[in-house]
Structures are given as C-alpha cells and as structure tokens.
Write a structure and sequence with these properties.
By secondary structure, this protein is an alpha+beta fold. It is 47% helix and 16% strand. The strands form eleven sheets. Strands 12-13-40-39-38 form a five-stranded antiparallel β-sheet, with no helix packed on it. A four-stranded antiparallel β-sheet has the order 14-15-16-17, with no helix packed on it. A four-stranded antiparallel β-sheet has the order 18-19-20-21, with no helix packed on it. Helix 1 runs antiparallel to helix 2 and helix 26 packs across helix 27. About 11% of the residues have low confidence. It comes from Thamnidium elegans.
Length: 1331
Amino acid sequence: MTSMQLPPGNDFNATWAFLEEGLDQIMTRFEQGLDRTRYSILYSAVHNYCARSDTNLHTSIASPGGNNSRRPAPAPPLIGGEVYTHLSTYLKNHLEKIRKESEQYMDESLLQYYTKQWTRYTAAARVVNNIFMYLNRYWVKREIDEDRKSDVYDVFTLTLVSWKKYMFEYVNHNVIAAVLKLITKQRNGEVIETGLIKNVVDSFVSLGLDHNDSSKSNLDVYRDYFEKEFIEATEVYYKTESEKFISENSVPDYMKKAETRLNEEEGRVQMYLHPTTHKTLIPICETVLVKNQEESIWDGFQSLLNADKQDDLHRMYSLLARITDGLNPLRVSFEAHVKKAGLGAIERISQNESEAVDPKSYVDTLLEVHKKYNDLVQSAFSGEAGFVAALDKACGEFVNRNKVCKGASNKSPELLARFCDQLLKKSAKNPEEDELEDVLNNVMTVFKYVEDKDVFQKFYSKMLAKRLVNGTSASDDAEGSMISKLKEACGFEYTSKLQRMLTDMSLSKDLNDRFKDLLQQNHEGSTSADFNILVLGAGSWPLSAPSTSFNLPDDVVKVYDRFQKFYQNEYSGRKLNWLFQLSKAELKTHYLKASKVGYTFMVSAYQMGVLLQFNTTDSCTYEELHKSTALAPEALNPALGILVKAKVLILRDAENVGDAGSRYVLNHDFKSKKVRINLNMQMRMEQKAETDETHKTIEEDRMFVMQAAIVRIMKTRKVMKHVALIEEVITQLQSRFKPRVPAIKKCIDVLLEKEYIERVENQKDIMSEPTLEYNLPGVLHYLQAEWRKFEREKNEWAIERAELQARIALLEGERRGIENIKLTMMKRVKMLEYALRQERCLQEINYLTSFPNKLPLTNALATRSMNNNNAVRKAPPAPPAPPASNTSSPVLVNRKLKSKTSPKRNGDIQKDVQVPVNVDEVAMINNIKEETEHYNPSDNNQALSMQIQEKFHLSEEKVLKLLKHAGKGTPKQEDNIIASGFDPNQIGEIDGQDQVQPKIWKPRITIKGHLDSVRAVCFHPNEMIAASGSDDGTVKVWNLQRTTGKDGSAIKKGHTNVVTAVAISAKQNRIYSASLDSTIRVWSLPSGDSGPFSPVDPSLNITTYIGHTDAIWDFRLSKDNLLASASSDGTVKIWDTESTGNLLKSSLTFDGISSESRKDRAAPTSVDFCPTETNKIIVAFTNAKIRMFDIETGQVLMTFKGSDDSFDSTFATQINRIVSHPTMPIIVSGHEDRHIKFYDLNTGECIQTMAGHLDAVTSLDINAAGTTMVSGGHDSSIRLWDLTTKTCIQEFSAHRRKGDEGVLSAKFHPSFPWMISGGADGIVKIYNHGH
C-alpha cells in the first residue's frame, strides 16, 4: 500500500501504520512541509477508522416474550480508544528521543536546542491536532463528558501534556539554570539573545494546564518552576551588589545605580517575562536596593539639601517614595533645614540694620526663603503633600518666632502691615499695576503663616485709616484688592470694618459735594477757607478722641458752624465728634520776601491754630498761645517744636520749647528751596507711643475675645473639664491668634467671678454653665448689656439709613439727569424727523424738475443724470430748518405724480426753476403749507403767495412756480394708484392723457415699517404681496392690494439676528427667510385680515431648518421647491421643502461633496438654479470663483472663467450676487469692485464686463421676459439695463446711504410690471413701469 493509498477502515494495523508514517513526516521532517493531498488522506484515514460500523452491532434483538415483535438496535459505540493509545505511545517515544539528544547540550546551547525543538514540536502538534480533529470531536469529547478517564485530553493538549511529562520534567533544571545564567550575564552588562529567554518563558506559560478543564490554562508551571527561582536569584544578586556598591561609592552614585537597576528590571518584565511577575519582582528589588539601604540614603539627605542638588534630591525622593514610611525622615529633616535657613536669613538682616528693621527688607527676606524652598518642593519633591506641610510648618515657625520678634509672635504681623502701608502709600517707588498685584499676592503668602492675625488687622486698619484720612493712598483699586484678598483668607467679619472705611470715604465725598452745592446756592461759596471734611463712622475707624481742647481760628469757625448746621439738617440725631488731631491745613504766606509767589505751609490743625495767631502780631509768648489755642502742653509743645526746628518761628527768652515765659517770634527771613513745605510730621517718640498703645489695645481685645469664646463653648457643651476647655479655646481661636494658657486661665477666673460660668460642686476641675438664678446684680447686668446692644444696633441702623438716603439722593440725581438727556434726545429726534421730511420732499421735487417726463433716459441722459447726481452730492448741506410740530408721518405713503399741464422741454425746466443747493425753498414752502390749515394746491391762494414772498424774499413768479412743483407731491385720497380690486396690469388707464409718453420706472409706494436696514425683499409670484427682511430681525409681509395709505403688514418674529434673504412660494403658500443666526425659518402666509396692529402669531412659524453652523448669506427657491442656501460655514445645502422625512438632500462645498472640514476653504456668497436644468446649481464664492454643480452627484461640472480676474484676496473684490437669465444661457454676476460680468452658461467664458455702479454692486435681478435687468449698489442708485444692448436705460437714486451702504436688494415682480427695493435707510419702495 502506497503512502497515498487510503487503508481500509476496519483494519486498525494498516490504519495506524499509515498514520504513523504521516506522524513521522510531521514530527521529524516538519520543515519539508505537508501537501494538501497528504493532509486530506491522513484526516480521512482517522475519520474512516473512527466512523466505521460493526455489523454485529446492527442485528435485531428478540424480545424476551418470544413474540415476533422486534425493536431497533442501539447506536453503534464510538471508536477511537486504540488510536488515542497508540498516539500517546508515539508521542512518548518521540519525546524520549528528543530528550536523549538534549543531554549533550548545556547552558546557552541547551536553550537554543530546547527553543528549536519546542517551536517545531508545537507547530507540528497543531497540524496533528487538525488531522485527529474527528477523534477530538467525538471520542475524546465523550470520554471527557462521561469522565471515564481523567487522563484523556484533546490531541493538542495531549501533545503539551506529553512534552511536560516526558521532556520538561527531565530537563527543566538545566533549562532554568541556563536561563538564570543568561539573565545574570545581561545584568553584568553583557549582550545576550533575549529571544531565547522569551521563547523559554512562553513555553513555561503554555505548559500550565488546568487538570479540571483542559481548555483552560494557568501559570502554575511558570511560577513553581521558574518565577520562584528567578526571584530568589534576583534578591541574592542585588543584595550582594548593593552592599558592595554603597560601601565603595557615595550616596548619590548609589541612588543613580539603584534607579538604573529598578528601571532595568521593569524593562526586563516588559521584554521577556510574564506581566504578572512585576508585582513580585519590583517590590523585592525595592526592598533590597532601597529599603535595606534607607538609613544610608537618609544620612545623605542633609548634604544634598545644603548643596541644593535638586536632581539628586528628586532621585532620592523617587526612590524612598517606593517604600513604606521612606519619606518621613526626609520631611522632618527638610522642615528643620527650612526653619534654620529662615531664622538665619532674619538674623542676618537684623545684624545689618542696627536700629529698627525695615519692613520691606524683612518681608522680602521671608518671601525669598519661602520661594526658594517652595520651588524646591515643586521640582525635587513633585509637590508632595507631606513636604508642602513641612514647608508650611517651618515657615510658620521662622515667621512668628525669630530674632526680630524676640520670642513674641506679634512683631511679624506689625512689620507685614507696615510693608503693606509702604506698598499702598503714594510714592515714587510704587510698582506698576500688574507688578503691584503680584506683590500683594506675595504679601498674602506671608500673611498665611502669621499666627497673630488680629495684630495685623489692628495695625493695618490704623495705617489704612491714616492713608485714607491724609489722602496718601496710591490707588483705590489696590486698597480694594488687598481687602478682598484678606476677606477671602479670613472671612467677612475680619474685613467688615476695613470695607466700611472705604464706604465712608465715598460717602464723605458725596457729602462734601452736596455741602459745596449748598454754599453756592446760598452765594456763600467765596469763603476765605477751602473746607473739606471726612465724616467717619465711630464703630469702624480705629481713631481715638482728641486728648486736648482746641479753639478753632476765627477764619475757620464760620465754615465749621455752617457744616454743623448742614449736617444736623441732613442727619438729625447724630453727633459729630471732631478729631482735630488728625486734621491738616495748608497756609499761604504773604509776609516773606524770599519767595515771589509765597510759600505754602502744610501743617496740622494745631500748627494752623498757632500760626494764625501771628496774623495780628509778630511775636507771642507761650502763655498767650496756650490761652488763644486752648491746647494742652502735650499737644502745644510738639506743634511749636516743629515750627521752631523748621525756623518758621524763632525761640526767644528761653532754652527749650514750652518753658514758662518763652517768646516765639515770626521769622521774616525764612528761606527754603521748596515752595510747598511739609511741617505736619510725626515725631519718633509719638510713633513709638502709638505702637505701644496699639499693642496694649490688642491685648485688651484678646481678653474679651477669649472670654466670649469661653462663654460660647460653655453654652454649647454645658459641662466641660478645665483642660478640655482650654484646648477647645485654643482650637477655636488659633485661626485669629494663638492664645496663651495663662491668659485663658485668667479669663476663666474673670468669668467665674462674674458668674458667667461656675465650678461643679466637689469637682473643681469641671466647669459648667451657671443655673438661671434671677438676682438683682444679674438682672441689672443683663439690662445693661441689652441696652448697650440696643444702642449699638440703633447707631448701626441710623448709619445704614443715612447711607441709604445718600444713595437714594444720588440715584435721584442720576434719574433727573437721565430724564433731561431723554428730553434732549427726543427734541433732537423730532428735529431730525422734520429735517428728514424736508430733505425727502426736496429730493423728489429736484428729481421731477431735473428730467423731462415724456422721453425715457438715453445713454446721454443717463450720463448727464449721473453727473448731476454727483454735483448734488458734492454740494454743501442745507442749513437746518426750524423745528416742526410733533406730527408722525404714515408708515406707507402712496404717491401718484400727475402732470396737469403740458410738459416743458428739459432746457426750459432747468431755466425756469433754479433751486439753490444751499436753500431748501420747496421744503420751506411745504412747511408753510402745512401751517396753513385750509390750503388747496388747486386754488390760487394769494394770501399764501404773499406770506411766502415776505418770509423768503422771493419774486411772485418764482413763488408761483415753486408752489406748482411743490403741489405735485401732495397726496390725495382719490389718487391712490393701488386700491381694493385693482388690476396692476391696467396702470395705463389711470392717466389717459399720458399714454403717448414712453414707460419708465417710477416710485409709487414708500414703506417705512422697519427699524433698521432692509436687506432682502421679494414679491409673491402671482399676487400683489411683498415680503421684506431687515437687520431688526423681523420679516414683514405687505398686502399691497389692501394698502390705502396705511400699514397693511404682518410681522414675523423668530430670528435672533439679521435677516439676509426672503422668498415666497405660491405653490406651498409659504414664506422662507434666512438669517445670520444660521437658521432658515418657514412661515405660513398670513390671512387677508392681518392689520398693522395685529399681534404676532407664533403658529405661523411652521418649521426651522437647522444644518448650517454660521451665517446664511443667500438662498434660492427653485420651481421644484428645492431650496439652496449658501452659508459662511463653507457649505451650500440643498433642502427638499416637500419632504416629510429628512429635509436635507445634499451638502456641497467648494470642491463638491466633501466631509472634510477646512477653515481655509472658500465660502459661498450667492446661489442660483440653472434655469434650463433644475438639477444644476450655480454658486459664487468668496474667492470670486463661480462654479456649476450637479445637485444629485455633487460633482463640479464647470468653473466659469474670468470671474476672478480682478480678485486680490480681499473682501473688496468678491462676488456679491449672481443671477441666471430666465430664457437665455447667460449668467450675470455683481462684484464688490463695482463691476457686472456676463458669462456663457455653455462654455463658461466671460462674454462681457462693464462698470455697473459707482460703488459695490449688491443686487441683481432679471425680469420674467428676460429683456431688462435691475441692479442696485452702495452708491444708493438703482439702474435698469437693456440686456440686448447691455446699456443703462434708466438710473435713479432710491435710498439714502447709511453706514457706507445704500441699496441692498431689488427685485422684479414675476407677473406684473412692478419692482421692489430695500435699502440701508430701512425703507421699502415699490416702483411701477408706466408713463
């Protein structure tokens, strides 16, 4: 039997011999391959044997009853046990042969041999598994399911089990030893073949079989045989290496080595070990390399800190962060180091400055130390919370307890407050605004570490009060910013008084203004003294009452009394306590010859009282000054001392200032280099006394705060131990200041004495809240406390009431000012309305008197018209007319211009009627006619003629001609050209006498219904209905058949931005509008009974098309009711308006249909459908390109040539509008650079270019017949063009310019000889083509 001949299915020996030959080829000669035929025959041999049937098993079995009934035989048994047994034996023999061959290899050669055999064996096993697939599917499956034998596996698992049993169990020790030896070589720096280790490790993982479920695997082999020995070898290796290395090298070098080793092991796991080894390997390495050497590493931390080795510090942090509690000693050492550095820095500046420490130097030193180590924490320690806390604790120590503080913690807040005072006080060294904000943030950094925040508050409030009172604050914004930062750090209560001080300053300013206004109203403003006062709340300002009496000089008493009376009238019930010790004055000298302009002395109020005594004499004794000023010696002596020291006064008859009998003589020879001399200076002794007084006040306030805290705690806890009470007081007050234990005990004794708390009987260390026993002292004490509370609240309410009254007065003044402005603006609006009516009237009369009414405009006339218009524009404006009466013009004005006399030639008109450009004579005549109640233009009103001649000094003949022309524009009710039931095609029947005249376009209706520019207009295709969209966001529908001089409109409100396009669909009875808000809204046409004051009906808004993401500039509605919209988002979207499902049909870009979004892609500006093929659309883009697209496919069919010849990549040369000819293959484009271009639709060539307007072309439209085109431009003109000759046949000025815009839209009626236009002036005009 040949190798390709299939053995008989019932002959096992032949079958196995055949299979064994195939197995030899697969197992031993796998590299030669196995063709598909051989593979199929081997599979068939297994199948035929296992699927064979035994005839003996298919015979019928007689029933026990002996009858002839028969039952079917059971299913034949599954066959395969002999094949499975022989296969297992074959694998055993094959693996024993490989094992014997492996005994000749060692180390790396063994790994190579093992890897090679494993790779070939597993590949061959997969082929064998496929050949014996039928055996797996039936016999093996049945054996496993019935659990007959626990050692039956599928064929592939059998191969792995055999490898593990007959190969791995014998060679694993040598293989693993070789692997570990190879890894050791790699750790020693040698280059190894990592693929060998990877393959061996993978084989270990593959041999992990689950005996309960052969389809699953585990890592038992990998962990038990390899990982355990690998971890042990790694620990021994690194333990030996680390001990040797650290004994021979420095700590930084060891850390580098340890970091490198840890990184290597992590890379080793990723390279060839199983990922689960990471959890076991890395902790062992961290323990050996870091944990075992942590003390040596800790010992090197201080030297690294001293040397500022940030890289090494970061490396140390990274290593010690890996182990438990590895960073704690570092934090302790770091805290001590920072504290030492801060104390040393403060000690150095205290030694350098022999006297008082400069606040700026002190604060800068604190900030410098903090910044240095804060940067170190962020960079070297990665901002770890433990090191941040250590830094804060160290900073708190050296900020509050250093050599400058001298054991107390109240010096730092005082110096910090003085630094803030220097910073916020006016000075040439003040930082810029941005820099000042950074400095204030740094101040708050130091403030965070200050323990006695109440000391800072007290000094800061005093210094703020001085800055505000003396007017030396550098910036109100900076003061407010600092208070806001303090409020954020300590809460509202901490800064309430500071904020109140700023409020008092603003209220005082308003109070001074009102007082000065009162003086001016009473004609008392010219006093000898310029008086300015600050009224400050006693509860908010840290100011004490004067310690001496003081007689005001007579020059100030008068103003003083006036203000007292004024203030009592404003705020009755308040009492003013004058703080003369804080007052200051400026005295102008006139007695000195050394200065031509005289000196100005800046003095205190007490010095002013002294110096003003010398207005009547040159010398005064001490007793005379004391009597006249009533100052106590404690106040008089310092004032005199400064004046004598500055040599303003000369001391006579005594040695010291203040001696009895001393005389003070005015120095007439006083000289100074300065013109303004400051004599209001505080003595050093006064400053020290003030500081000591402040500290004394702080201690007193603290006692009250501690007592209040104790009472508050006891009211909450009721009963509390003495020690616990002290601890609770410290906890509650440490955010404001750190109370001392002796002080707390003293406060407890005071409260015990006052019976606020009491001791528990027989337990002296336990405090309790006293029982409520009503006795006379307690009741009196309670009443006193409540009375003081009531008085305090009453004063606060009075202050608040005064503030509100001041605020109300201010708001009332603002309201009156706004009302005055409103009245003024209303007067101006009325004047502008009157002037606008006069200007429009003059324009219409000038238009009627400048051109003949019989002949249409030729090219020559058009040119002359253009020149005349230019001349009018350049003429100087007319002087303003007198104000008109408050009459409102109607929103719609209908005019019918009739010529009741035979028209004159153009030359005659120009000769007879000459209206000067600088005098609006016709407007003035119209004004007089409006003032005449019963004026009839058909009557020869002699009285009116005489009145005009006298008023304007005109001749009788000229007045009659002007009256005749002014009467042409007078509206009459019977002259309405559009009325109910009117047929617009019969316009020629109205003026039968004018039938011989050529037809021209004339304005018939002026609609003033919008509040802003009208940007879009359109007609109903079949009816006399128009729609307009405006910058005011509204769409209005005008029923022109109902118009009788009143507004026949319906308003659509829905857009949130400018309306840019409107269209009316007759088939759908809908209105479409687009806007800059990127939406298209669909409206129902309103009913015929809509009036000018009909409410807006929200139900008319049918739907909203949402798809664009930017402004929509244009859209077109096709005959098939497809809507194409062009948007600034770079897309043209096609909407199926009749669809009931997805409205969006397709979306086009400059390149066609594209999902890619690019910002540099050109955006469409205008669209139009191809008139002959509605499945094509023409689009103009911002780059002046015009392209034709196929709507269905989105492909670019054509790019028109020559459209971008003048394009210079700016808005000034883009295309604003395109329109297609209704009957001819022509496309017309209007450009921003004033040109109009014509293109052949078939070839895409530009066939003609012409200058269309004097400014940008904004609108184009062609009538239904295709003979005439209308164009509008920003030059405010509308031009009509003959499309046959491409010449202008008529031009007229339609709208006034506004914001460099003129005519914005002009459209023909599709069915009637009517035209509509909208402009920047907010007006809609309706034109008729007639005589």
